[in-house]
């Protein structure tokens, strides 16, 4: 009898919003790290559990930071970008995530 793949809990999709693709995050890929935009209330253990469940990889470390929104102007009118939380997830040797394919 074939082994069924375990269902992924829906709260994991609430923790990780998507990959954060920048020049710096692409360079971190060389050091086996991936950057995700996550929920502001997400804790490091929750982020680790979500990445391991969604991508079937082993996570060795999670570092988080809150990126403050910038003040910008559009057509002469000021506005402010929203704050968001980023997570730099370090993967075990041999594991990798292709962020261009999606979840």
Please provide a written account of the structure:
This protein has one domain: Alpha-Beta Plaits, CATH 3.30.70.330. The two termini are 28 Å apart. It has helices at 11-15, 23-28, 44-55, and strands at 16-19, 33-38, 59-67, 71-74, 77-80, 84-91. The mean pLDDT is 89. It is built from three helices and six strands, in the order αβαβαββββ. One of the early assembly proteins it binds 23S rRNA. One of the proteins that surrounds the polypeptide exit tunnel on the outside of the ribosome. Forms the main docking site for trigger factor binding to the ribosome.
In total, the number of strands is 6
Low-confidence regions: none
Helix/strand-derived category reads alpha+beta
| Rg, Cα atoms, Å | 16 Å
Average pLDDT, rounded to a whole number, is 89
Helix content range: 10-25%
Oligomer: single chain
Largest sheet: 4 strands, antiparallel
Strand content: 25-35%
SSE order: HEHEHEEEE
**Tally of individual domains:** 1
Q: Provide a count of the helices.
A: 3
- CATH superfamily membership: RRM (RNA recognition motif) domain
Strand order of the largest sheet: 1-2-6-3
Distance, first to last CA: 28 Å
The CATH level-2 architecture is identified as 2-Layer Sandwich
CATH class: Alpha Beta
Keywords: Ribonucleoprotein, Ribosomal protein, RNA-binding, rRNA-binding
Function: One of the early assembly proteins it binds 23S rRNA. One of the proteins that surrounds the polypeptide exit tunnel on the outside of the ribosome. Forms the main docking site for trigger factor binding to the ribosome.
Protein name: Large ribosomal subunit protein uL23
InterPro entries: Nucleotide-bd_a/b_plait_sf, Ribosomal_uL23-like, Ribosomal_uL23/eL15/eS24_sf, Ribosomal_uL23_CS
């Amino acid at each position: 009898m074939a082994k069924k793949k375990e269902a992924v809990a829906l709260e994991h999709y609430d923790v990780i919003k998507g990959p954060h693709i920048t020049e710096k995050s692409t360079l971190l890929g060389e050091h086996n790290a991936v950057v995700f935009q996550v929920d502001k209330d997400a804790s490091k253990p929750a982020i680790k559990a979500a990445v391991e469940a969604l991508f079937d990889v082993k996570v060795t470390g999670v570092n988080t930071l809150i990126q403050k929104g910038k003040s910008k102007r559009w057509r002469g009118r000021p506005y402010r970008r929203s704050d968001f939380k980023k997570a730099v997830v370090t993967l075990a040797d041999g594991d990798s995530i292709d962020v261009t394919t999606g979840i």
